[in-house]
Amino acid sequence: MVFLRERDCKDGFILDGFPRTAAQAEALCEILTDMGRRIDMVVDFSVDEEELIKRIVGRRICKNCLMGYNIWFAPPAKEGVCDRCGGELLRREDDSEQTARARFKVYKEQSEELGAYYDAAGKYRKIDGAAGVEEIFEKIEEIIGKK
Ligand SMILES: [Zn+2]
Predict the structure, then answer these.
(1) Closest listed residue to residue 122, CA positions, set 96, 97, 89, 147
(2) Staple partner for 60: which of 81, 89, 93, 126, CB 3.0–4.6 Å?
(3) What is the mean pLDDT of residues 95-100?
(4) What is the distance between the alpha carbons of residues 19 and 17, in angstroms, rounded to a whole number?
(5) How far apart are CA 9 and CA 122, in angstroms?
């Protein structure tokens, strides 16, 4: 948390992907309180389980140039072949559906607990994380503006 003392955090900061659990949120709150600071708002980019599973299970990566694809959302022109270099597309072993569902279950339990923690403090906002980039941007502006 040393970076929070940096000058560019003077007027505010965004934490992305942290805290992940209610216990981490409590620890963060103590640290911030000691620094005379606080969390103003928590934005949950909520994505439906099936959508998220497709994003993970559909991931492919070119073994030559590391270009990323998704067989549903960003497929290559020819199945299994990289558009950019013609290389073979591979799936990472931990991108299997079984692994993705197990990870999602843990994530869901932790994020519900975390959401409840911040909701109790009146700081929790949930938005549709599957929406388009512009829509998400507008929602965030709205949330920050309401603060
Ligand atoms: Zn490639």
Answers:
(1) 147
(2) 89
(3) 90
(4) 6
(5) 23
